Queue: 2 jobs
Job 1
Amino acid sequence: MSTELTFSQVDPYAGLKAAAGIGRADILATMKTANIRGRGGAGFPVSVKWNLAAAAVGPEKFIVCNADEGEPGTFKDRLVLSEHADLVFDGMTIAAIAAGAQKGILYLRGEYVYMLNDLETVLARRREDGMLGQNSAGRIGFDFDVEIRLGSGAYVCGEETALIESLEGHRGEPRNRPPFPVDTGYLGRPTVVNNVETLAWAACILARGAEWFNRIGTEQSAGPKLLSISGDCENPGVYEFPLGVSITEVLKVVGAEDAKAVQIGGASGQCVPAGNFERKIAFEDVATGGSIIVFGPGRDMLDVARNFMEFFVDESCGQCTPCREGNEKLLEGIEMLAAGTCSMKYLRELCSLGKTMQVASKCGLGQSSPNAFLSIVEHFPDEILGRAEGTVA
Amino acid sequence: MLVSNRNRLDRELDVLIDKCGRQRTALMPILQAVQRKYGFIRNFAMQKIADALSIHPVEVHGVVTFYSFLSEKPRGRFIIRLCRTISCEMAGKDRVAAQLETELGIKFGETTVDKRFTLEWANCMGLCDQGPAMLVNDTHYTRVTPQRVLEILEECRSRLSPHAMQGAEEEHLV
Ligand SMILES: Cc1cc2nc3c(=O)[nH]c(=O)nc-3n(C[C@H](O)[C@H](O)[C@H](O)COP(=O)(O)O)c2cc1C
Ligand code: SF4
Ligand code: FES
């Protein structure tokens, strides 16, 4: 079940036409007033990123739409791409006007290849309608087009520098940052990488005005946000909420008031126990790229931790030691907890290993992979300790 | 590989490379197309692609082994990928997995002797609100139950009717 989304109420092309009419400086000013932050997880201010790319010097620039959507529990970008693809392409084209880019690339995860034909059809129509190609959206001398490239089943390729490596034909191994893609991105050129949802909101902001967007949400977390909600609830699906909404309110809407805990932000996010459900979903409180997974009263939190750790062991690119070895160690620790052979002392060592990984890993994957483990240890110690082999809590 | 098959593959790769281009950025699209068409990327193809792009074959091999959807070993005509991540786990993926193994007589990570089916685990595929989720090649299945497993397999087999089978299987084993 999905609630009515703003995206259903904004006409395709509307935001782009408005943007084409006002030009680069006013687009950047509008994004600044809207105060929108990236919807892919990290929450970087969009106007800052676009400004940096606009100021960067290069013979060509690129706009990359990140449609790798691999964070466990996230599926809102799938919905946006299948039902509101025009808004995403509007957003890419608006970003191109703002940054002065000539080419766009949509990096679609391999698992979503079933959407490819429909997306190509939308692009073809946009070319016919003059929204892409020579003098796009009626702007003389603005020749922008979008190409779709596929991923091949690697979660780490959602990280923006790994994504760029993959586009360039390499293993998806994250680069050191800085330099950032806005000055040294695809083929060494200035590149804006934005999430699918971010770009669709950009189109809505240009269509409806920055004030409309900014009035929704909190001071530090402006605007509405799509949440992908799954797990133990009556009505899983994609929902739109204003940022700053409390976990309690969200759970009420999806029919999960008896939840024991929720995982916010996917495998790399944190586990919030029922006692803390008054906390708010916002960049300044519990941040999320959109994944919310609900755990009902009967769930074994150690199983949850194990599932997440297996995910990271599988998806680590193996480039740096803290992440490659650390995730293995944490998974081993979880097996020991399950077997009842993990001492409190060793558990403390594992937690300190997790904290080291958060600071010593090269990219966001290793920096956030211990989060779920650490928050489950913190909130459910009595559930995970003292097990006899083969028993569950 | 039969010499005639090898020549055919050689010609087909030429066409593909001409279409995608010879710059490094064409590597993923080329590999993805080879994977799709032949079910895996054999040494001969990696060598040939490396030559065309003027890079070392080790580079191509490094890329093929990095991505879970690219394979250097033959896989089945139908690659079944069942999501093992948390929401699908809570929705009952273990029982779907058990039924798949029973119906096909293989374990996850294996391919049936007739080379028709490969069973693989996948991580979250963005269908968490409709789990257990599963991909069969490019097609997605949602809310899969143990009971539906046979029906889905039969659907695959029916697409390999004796007639369809010939062309497809032959192409796949080149
Ligand atoms: C391991 C990892 C995976 C990521 N996966 C995605 C993803 O699938 N989609 C996405 O938009 N951002 C993902 N990101 C964040 C991107 O690196 C980047 O911050 C984002 O695409 C920027 O877009 P935004 O500012 O519009 O959010 C990931 C980051 C990390 C560290
Ligand atoms: S933190 Fe993990 S995924 Fe990131 S670069 Fe290091 S090994 Fe690779
Ligand atoms: S958890 Fe299975 S599709 Fe997301």
Note: Chain A touches chain B through 53 residues (CB under 8 Å).
Job 2
Amino acid sequence: MANELKVTIDGMEFSAQPGQTILEVARANGVFIPTLCHLQGTTNVGACRVCVVEVENARSLVASCAMPVSDGMVVKTDTPKVKSAQRMVVELLWASGDHNCLTCEKNGDCTLQDLVYHFEIEKPRFPMTSPGVLQDDTNEMIFRDLNKCILCGRCVRACNEVQVNEILDFAQRGSKAKVGPAFGMNYIDSDCYFCGECADVCPTGAITFKAARFAGRPWETRKVATTCTYCGVGCQISLHTHKGKVVKVSGKELHRQPNFGSLCVKGRFGFEFIHDPSRLTKPLIRREKGGALEEASWDEAYSFSGKKYQEVIKSGSSAVAGLASARCTNEENYLFQKFIRAGAGTNNVDHCARL
Amino acid sequence: MAGLAAAFGSGAMTNSIEEFEVADVILATGTNTTENHPVIASRIKRAVKSGKTKLIVVDPRKIDLVKYAAIWLRQRPGTDVAVFNGMMRYIIKENLHAKEYVETRTENFEALQACLEKYTPEYVEKISGVPASDLIKAARMYAEAPKGSIAYCMGITQHTTGADNVKTIANLAMLCGNVGIEGGGVNPLRGQNNVQGACDMGCLPNVYTGYQQVANADARAKFAKAWGRELSDKPGLTIMEMMEGAHKGEIKAMFIMGENPMVSDPDLDHVGASLKKLDLLVVQDIFLTETAQLADVVLPAASFAEKDGTFSNTERRVQMVRKAVNPPGLAKPDWQILAEMSTACGYPQSYNSAEEIFTEIATLTPSYAGITYQRIKNVGIQWPCPNAEHQGTKFLHKDSFSRGKGLFHAIGFIEPAELPDEEYPFCLTTGRVLYHYHTGTMSRRSKGLVQRYPESLVEINEVDANKLNVLDGDMLMLNSRRGTVSAKAWITDRVAPGVVFMNFHFDEALVNKITNPALDPVGKIPEYKVCAVSVQRAG
Ligand code: SF4
Ligand code: SF4
Ligand code: SF4
């Protein structure tokens, strides 16, 4: 690279590109700097100041997420001064809310909790004050408890800069500051599209997924990477399962093509059909024309179909037709047309995507 | 997709989703992207907000994307060809087209040029209602962009002139040299998760996997050898023709996997009558759908969360589907059911895993040949991917089109099959809403989605609502020559006066009972986007 820069972090020299931030260079080289408000792909606001580092010749500590590197820059991430500043930030944030991890959905998957542990803070030195905000439990998808909000603004940036749904914003300032839809509305009364991005990026338990509440701790759930079953974007999603049930869908674990962690309301919240009691669980056959559909074993269903099929095929291959599915997998669609083409001997195969 | 294949030689999205963010201009037409492909819409909105990209929306409805558009052309439903012909005529007249590209990479330009002559901005305004000055502005903006991308969806294809509409869009893109470049292209956004894959896998009457023609003797011989059976060289029937055949008693047995034509087809009564005449109807699905209720045999299938396999997304990316939970009761993955059913019908098949089937697909399909489960473990690969070293293809037609030269089609404007008249004075157009999907079998079983959008709504303009003395939430009755549906009114400027919009997700308000089953002669797609109705307050 023509204009590669040299940066020293904690005594190690790394090469960097112009425009990269200190945080980016550190992360790219495996140097840990704690962050809370930083959200990849959005404006670096440097608001929470938990990512501060020492830069040689700078007058005060700098927020590494917002500071671009320059050639020859010397950075220290682990001096006592840095550590105590970072620790202070975490301590103040902890004290500013109602962080009762015992029942919090984020327990075990919370950045604030991780940092409290990281800095070995047993108890904040400041009095713990819950803001006493009402919880928003008015909709079936997203649960909000702003008493756990650390005002990092990630949800606001996710909603405005990633999804560009432009619902969330900060309201008021100082100790009364709050994030949410305009006019302090609940989600359900606002124009929210329920993409769920805000909940996915919230580092604490302030915005969580309703269906996942009390449905399994993060360490008890299994996460399976798969592809959304709704539209043709094919978002990469993570199905969180607990006791054989899907309890949550998230995107953030899979920051990759084609959706880079973003989902929409269908992919995010449209999974309940999987465990709907009206799912078909047994083969059904109509033993008499005009009769009712009755339960049968797989063997009976196959032999019943096979027998009728043999009668039909006597009048020629072209008496058979098949409709495959834009819902099913490639493997299934392949087998389907193979069955119709090679098995029945006709090209009468189509699917419903014309509709 | 037939329209695109005719122009370029291949019927898929030419470019990639991420390229919307590097386009200079995006022309979105017949796609309500924020509701149907929300994650793509976010990309488009991000591109616009960054200031690098300008958006042109051509749509009869004031969809949410209009908020981000530099120009919005609100054409009368079904007049797309006139609008795009008008843009092209202006572009050529002003010498804004990509002359070298047209000369070296395309053919039949003269025929196109001749047919465009009469589409003056004024003439187009008369047909479509789009002001001449806006048309000119949009034409300039698209033609002057170094990289112009066109995105479209069912708003373009679900017309009796669907294939014409697509060819016209292809004309416009080629005219400005926008096909075969990064950030450009003609991009049909696929509505369902694996439409692309179902087509790629040969679930079409005239092609095997990877669009290898059944009429081609070499292709037929290859598949006959692999499958161990003689194969027919006669292209099969399309879905609408199958229904017709069943009605006449020529089709006697049908297998339907995971589809519900009893809700999605136009003219539903006819479909029901046809399916009832079959000697054998086998349906495999996850729910007892309206179609399954008519079946002789219903087989319980696994949902996407209960099986392994792959889906191919709208940008040709083959991606993994993985089993997360067990299917309920005795339900099984469709691939297992198919192998067993095939065996029961005298053509034995057996596979141990979905992966084994995929390997067979790759050996028979040049565009999938280089793809394996191992390679797409983390990130999917975009076909064509001809060999194990190939990284996949981000955009198509780079140095030449799949068919060699890009083919211009000279296409004149034709009115929709049914126009409003005295008896049926409104134009009904149909589509989807954000919170639901297709026939609602999945989305309507999710509490949150139902809470947000609990019942079907008819979008109607305030001007019409006032004339009919209708308030928000009043029950409306819509009549067409084919039937009647009722649903609540939503008074909104999303639709123009004289136009009403309804979705097709709710079986209590089956809009396809009244839509026009008239088909596009090429694509055999029904005209869901335009029919004539009368509107009254119910009760
Ligand atoms: S769910 Fe989506 S639209 Fe709603 S507030 Fe969160 S990010 Fe914004
Ligand atoms: S709700 Fe969560 S993401 Fe939003 S500001 Fe509060 S802590 Fe940050
Ligand atoms: S999450 Fe939404 S946008 Fe993504 S594939 Fe699913 S339905 Fe489409």
Note: DSSP finds eight helices and 16 strands in chain A.
